[in-house]
Structures are given as C-alpha cells and as structure tokens.
Records
---
Amino acid sequence: MAIQTLADIGEFGFIDRIAARAHTEEGVIKGVGDDAAVLDCGGKDYLLYTTDMLIEGVHFLRTIMAPQEIGRKALACSISDIAAMGGIPTYAVVSTGAPYNTSRSFLEDIGQGFNDLAKEYHVSLVGGDMTRSNRLIINVALLGKVKKDQVIYRAGAKKGDCIFVTGSLGNSFKNRKHACFTPRVNEAQYLLEHARPNAMIDVSDGLAGDLGHILEQSGFGAVIRTTDIPLAKDASLDQALHDGEDFELLFTVPAQKADALRRCKKYRFFEIGTICSKPGMFLVDEKGRKRQIEPKGFEHF
Ligand SMILES: [Mg+2]
C-alpha cells in the first residue's frame, strides 16, 4: 500500500487525527476544533488561545504585498479568530524564520505593520523567537479573553436561526482585501450585546467551507439565498463560496433577534439564509430553484 501523505488526508483530516490523540489536562474547555482554544485559568474570564502561520509563497508574495502589509496580516488573521469566539485580543508572541540575506529594513517594516495593528487593537507583543530558514515564515500566537457566559462556538446553531455575515465575500486576492482586512472585533462585541449569536466562525476558507464547519458541529443543515450573499467587487458566486481570506464573521442568531441586526445602523449585517433540520447545504437562486452544494472551501493541501 502506498504511503499516505498530507495530500491524501487533507488539512482537516490531519487536524482531526491530531485532535483525537491530543493530551489535555483540566482547564481545557474547548481544545482543537474551533477558531481558538477556550481555557479556564480561574477568574471570571476564559482565556482564548490561537495561532496562525504565514509562509512566503503559500500565504503571501513579497512581489504583491508590502512588508507592512505582511506584518499586519500576520496579526490580523489571529485577531479575527479571537473575534470569532466573541473575545478581545490581549497578548501576542511572534516567531519568525527568515533567509540570511533578508534586509534589515524589510524586517523592520514587517514589524511596523504588526505594531500598528497591535496598537489599534490594544494587543501587547510580549515575546517571540527568530531562526534562519529558506523562506520567510511568520508565526503569531495570540491570547484573548472572553466573559465565561459570552463565549461563542462553531457548534450551537439551532433550527430556524437566521444566518448572517459581516461583509462582502469573494475575490479577496484581486481586491487586495486579503492584505488589509479589518478583523471584526467591534462587530462581535456589538453582537454579544444586541443579538447574541448561537454559533460563529470567521470566513477564512470561503463561505461554503466555513458554514460547513458550523453545520457539522451543530448537527443541522442550511438554506442560503444566493441573491442575498454580499458579493465583493467583481466576485462570482463561486468565489464567494469557495475562495479564501475574506475574514468576515459568519454567525447564526435566533429568528426573534434578527430584526435588531437588520435595523442596525452602526454596522452592516447581511442576512443570507436559515438553519434547517435537514442536513446539507442548499442554495436557492432568484427563481427559487434549489440545489445542494458541497461544504468545501479553500484547502491548503
Ligand atoms: Mg478561524
């Protein structure tokens, strides 16, 4: 039998295997399998913990991204994950691998982009590591906090919930949104106060893939109205469903709370569909035709 590789089992297949064998001790409220880990270290808040790695040639190219943008994005991806749990980001450590011949000013500019965003979101940089590598690698580990009764998981969507998204989707690379998106911390805090979601995730791998995570973990299906999906500039429906790196929040709220979001003036929340009891993801087009789609987003392997 041929040796199985990452290409055979895929990113999520590999994560599932690691999760099944992970050693955990007391205090782990939610381990592998959500946007961030949820930890009980005493006190009135839970600690949130997430990490993201950016690798040159996989997640960014120097030719199309300024170094400030690379540094900013390295932190922004993790902030987005903390936001998706209903949390506030707090402390970060950064590990970097870089080729010997990387210029000092280039690295300093990456640091500048990181620091500017850190300041904006009140994140303290408190440590890190640096090593030589063949290509530029930046790994951010970020802590956050959330009140114990306010943490929002991917699991938790209920039949009849309205499905919302915080912004437009698709074509994020051409539109350059992948390089300068706004992590939706403020929107998430607004939601906690005005229409607490039953389930939430950030859209990093495309609507279909990330909604798929909510449905799988909640044990329900969804009907999405294609005409209500907010398409980004020049984005096709297909791109909105399967592209990556929009970093909007995707969440579900009970129907009776949805009105508060439809009327909201401070932020725009786009209502795109409903949670249903029948498993699967269904699209309804402008003529009322229904078709089932695969919950498949962008995969890194
Ligand atoms: Mg995420």
---
Amino acid sequence: MKRIRRRSAVTLALALLVLFGLGALLARLALRGGRWAAYSANAHVYHNGVLACGTLTDRNGVVLFSARDGEYAYAEEEAVRFASLHAVGDQRGNIGSTALGIFSGDLVGYSPVNGTDGTGGEVRLSLDSRLQAGAWYALNGRPGAVVVMDYETGEILCMVSSPAYDPLYGQRRDAEGMYINRCIGGLFIPGSIFKLVTLTAAAEHIPDLRSRTFTCNGSLELFGETVHCTGVHGEQTVEQALANSCNCAFGSIALELGGQVIRDTAERLGVAGSLPWYGGRTASGRFDVAARGSAPLAWSGIGQYNDLVTPYAMARLCAAVAGGGAVREGVLRAGDTGARSRLMDADTAGFIGDCMNYNVVYAYGKNNFPGLDLAAKTGTAELGDGSTHAWFVGYLRSGPPLAFAVLLEQGGGGLIAAGGVANHVLQLANGYYAS
Ligand SMILES: [Zn+2]
C-alpha cells in the first residue's frame, strides 16, 4: 500500500511536470510564434527572401504595400509609391531598415490557432500618404530628404528620400545612392543648421550669453586664415546673430566653448554619433574636435569643417526643442509612442525655441509661411565645389505638433529652396491636421 502510494505520487509529479512544460511551450508559441514564423528560412511566408504576405497601410488605411501568396501590390498613386519606397521597402529587398523588415513578424499574420495561413497580417504605419506625395512633388526630382514627425508621440508622418524608383517596376535607371534612405542613412554637411547645436552648448556653458553682444565686421582672422561671414552684421545679440546666421558670432562662440564641449553637446543631442532605429542604428553623424583657437574650430561650430548629420537627427533635435527639451524617439507605426529621452533642460529648450521663432519673424519672413506658427533654422552648406546643400529645419509652435527637416542636395539656398519644400508639406499638414 505504502509502495503504491509512493508510486502514484511520483507519477503525479511527472504528469504535472509534463503539463507545466507543455503549458510553457504553448505560452511561448503564443507570445513569440510570430517572430518564429517570420524567420527568413520559413519558405512558407517568404519568396526570394522577401515577405510574401501581409499588408502595410498609411495612417489613414491607404494601402502602401500588400502581398498574398507571393503576389505584390503597392499604393495606387504613383507619387506615393515613389515617395514611400525607402520607408516601406519593396519586394526585391534592396533597401535596408524598411517597415517591411521592421514589422515582418506582424505582417506574417501568425496566429497560435491557425499558424501562418498565407493571407498575412496588417500594420498601419504612421506615414500619411498625402504628405508623402506632397513632399515628393515638392522635391520635384531633386535629390534630398523630407522628414516630418509628431513631436508629442514620435510618429513619423513623412519620410521621403529622393532619388527613388517605382517599386511596381523596379529600378530602371541608375542614380547615385538610390537604395539609401537619406533620412536615416544619409550623411550631409549641415552648414548653418548646426548653429542650433552650438547655440545649445553656448546656452549651457556661457552664463551671460543672453545679455551679451557679438560684433561682426564681415570676417574673422585666425592665424592667417579667414572665416568669412555672409554679410557685415555689426553689433548683435545672440538671437540676432542666429537670425543673421552670422559666422563671425558663431565662430567666436565655438572658439570660446572649445571643440570638446561642442562635440559632447552634439553627441548628447544625437546629432553626432548614431541613433537607435528599430533594432539597428542610423548613419553616424560626425563632429571632429579641431585645435584650440584655430579656423577649423570656428568652421566646425558653424556646420562646416568635417561636420556631418542625418536629416532625421536634425528633425529629432527640433522635436526636442518643441517638446521642452525632451523628445519621443521616432516610430513608424500609427498609434505607437516612442521612448522618451531628455536632450536639454526646459529653460534651454525655451530659449532655443524663441530664437528659432525670432529667425522666422526677423529674417525669413512670416509671409513666406502663411498661417504657420513656425520656429526654424536655415542652412546653406558649402561643399567646396561652389555648390551648396539647402537645409530648412524646425517645428510648428501651435497647430499640429510637427517637427521637420528638409534637405536638398546641392539644392541652392536654405530659405528659398528647402524652405519652399518645407512650406509646401507643412501647409498640407496644417490643412489635414488643424483641429
Ligand atoms: Zn556676420
């Protein structure tokens, strides 16, 4: 009797162990099955290494990509297809860090009950196809990038990189860097938009910055090298110096701060170094510390020398200024909220934001941006061959909570060229999202 009781106890314990193991397996299958099913060796859901099922829509339900049983479809509107190529991806899998790769687990449409039945799942992206098309038309074939993000959630509403090709037909002509998403994967000389970084460092390290004045006689002489300004600006406050985009004032500030302080600030703001992007990283922005008192140090503080940035990092910086110093990291799925990071304190953000608004009022002309409550900074980055990158970055102070960066490669002047593209996209957004 005693032996029987002992045996039944052992059997019961074994049965419980098996049940527990089975339960754990089922739980893991339910929780992680999508990821297992999305594993690229699963021939059931992949054709030539690209997902063969699932649907990606924009935030309003417009289909951007769909696949079923290896048949692919894209947005109906041609401009949306071109504009969304880099953010969404295509059936050939030529482009990295796309929504297709990021959300493959959800697109497989795995369910613990039915497994992968071939129809796939649906993911609603944060992109707005109307802004995508608008940015594409505004770029008008010129190489460049447009990023627009909601600074309250981090949702990316617009991510356009040019040149692109129609994913429906594949690439038909060879253009330089066509496979690169310039928004997160392109590095460009920032020119004067970098003055936002130098200004942030100055606000944090020069106690009397806001009461000081800076004199510009048209150039700075440094050990026989000349740093030229765009004009002769005379005596200016730091706000006026930013609005004038005065190289003498910001060159002097860079000399006063030293390269290491600016570099530390640029890294903390995410402008130098890379940013996390869905398990990967963006291209790594660059700021080299030049010798104390040198002309290269002055140039580095005004966005030249060896400085390089991504458009996304600049939009994110503007989002942080808009958000009182804290930013929501960019997300590509509608309704998601990015992780919160603090880049600067609220007082500094308020000051930078006021300066950026003063730029528009004092220098850029509110009439060029009708109906927009804009804070911005222009950049016209010199490439050394006489051509310039045109930049325009900033955010809306009221209305829809949007931060943005626009780049036109070798596209001329910041205000006219890039500012024009920004205005076109922001006017659309203001119309769609004003409430
Ligand atoms: Zn000047």
---
Amino acid sequence: MTMNTLPPVAKSIFTFCKKCDADRYHVVLAHTSATSAKVKCEICNSTKTFSLPKAQSKTGKPLTGAAAKKREQTANARRSSHRNEYDMLMSDESAKVVSYSMKEKFEKNQKLKHPKFGMGFIRDALNDKIEVVFEDEIRTLVHNR
Ligand SMILES: [Zn+2]
C-alpha cells in the first residue's frame, strides 16, 4: 500500500517510532506541509515528523521518470538475486543429481531434475516436503509418499 496524501488530522497511521524502535500507531496532530505531518506515538507519546515516502513526488503525481525507473530496478534486483542464488547452487559440482518422484525420499543439497520445472536445487528437506530452488522461483514439493 502506498499513500499519495497525508492521513487526516486525528487519524492514526502505522509508522516507525524511533523511541520504541518498532512500528507503532501514531496519531496525526497537524499537517506541517503538503507532504509532512506532526505525529504522536500512541505507545510512548513521543512526537515526530512523518513525511510521505520519498518515491512520491511532492505534487502527488503518479510515479514517473527516475522514481518509476528506481522501482523497476528494485524488482530487477530481486529477480537477479534469485537468479544468482540459483546459479550459485547449480555450480555445486559435488551435489548429486536425482530425478523427481513424489515416492522417493530426497535429501538436502541435491540437484533435482523435474519433468515440468527443469533443474532445481533442494535447499531444504523435511519429512514430507522439499524446498527446491528452480530457475524461475522456489517451489515446495512433496516427497517420501
Ligand atoms: Zn513510540
């Protein structure tokens, strides 16, 4: 959820309180500008200035240009970090390659050949479930049936 406008005075917003060192409800005391407001923590009563997230433009227009690009880059970074983990796991030459079947019992740190999802790496193995890192995403599969 992203806020485009400040919450009205006397309403509560959920935001980080430095004093509590946790996310707390804060009552809005007053608006100090178009993008910031004075708020009071409901737990410790400390006041602070709440500002709308930086990604929002001051005029409340939708994200354009640099801000939109930054958001896109964050999404790409998340995708590429999954890809990095997959590549790193796949580069483990010592891992045994096994073929998936729900009747088999698999161990952690094995490479799994799946007929539909392709090659994956078993990151974790429980009694009846395995967590497998595939190229596109992490999936939980059943085993040991
Ligand atoms: Zn507080």
---
Amino acid sequence: MPVLVNLRLLAEEPAHLEGELPAAACGMEYRDELIRFDEPLRYELDVERQPDGLLITGSLATSIACECSRCLKPFRLPVEIPELANLAPLQGEEAVPIEGDFADLTPLLCEDFYLALPANPLCRPDCRGLSQTASARDSHLEGSPSDGPSPWAALDKLKL
Ligand SMILES: [Zn+2]
C-alpha cells in the first residue's frame, strides 16, 4: 500500500499521515548482502503544500536484520529518522509521482530510509571481528596502521 496524499485537500489544509509501509514496498530495491528489510516502515508525517512543492516533516522508524560486517553475526538494528524534513517538488525530474489527485510519497520515504542505513553494519561499535584472525589483524593494525592490508580491504574482497 503506497503512501498517498490527496493534493486537492492539501491545497486547503495540511495533511497528517500515519501508517506502515510494508517491507516489500521498499526492500525490493535495496540490495546489500548484510542488510535485510523485513519489518514494515512506520511513518508519521505532516504534509504541507508550499509554492514549490510539498513540505514533508515527521518521522520514520523500523528495524532491520543485519549481519555484522566484521564478525558476520546476525543482529537486529533499529533504524529511526526522528526529524524528517523534505521538500518534494511536484514538477520536473525530481517530482513525486502523481496519479489523479494523489501524490505518491512512497519512493521519497524509501530513499530517506536507505540514506539512514549503515554502510557497514556492526553488531556493536567495538566489535573485534572474527575471533582468531581478527585478533591477529588487530595487533597488526595497532603496531603500524600502514603495514599490511586493512580489514576493510579484506571485507571489500568478501563482498565481491
Ligand atoms: Zn560483530
């Protein structure tokens, strides 16, 4: 179910939208082996008509299934955008999709959500990575950071 706002009503007064966007509505386009979008995206939005577009404020929240990019342990991560603020144009290349009287805010919300996702999810900020190899790597790194491949280089290879 897309997030739609009635433009005709919006011309008269701001709209308040609340609901859940199913995981499938956003998750299909997001391809990252370490992140799975499997819970609905909860939204609470205020939409206001402005001369040059729609002013959208509010919040987004959900939780995602991740694998730690260092130790590969699965974990869940809450993702929240508590103060969303977005001006969505109604015309031009960046315009929100419009059908009849309704503007579809779904792609916009998905995009904001993607931007809030971690590039390298970690089970905890100080995760040491996989036990043995990681401790060897860590002592290596602490000795001299420029010496030898970084754990990130190894990860990049893994991703390929
Ligand atoms: Zn970890």
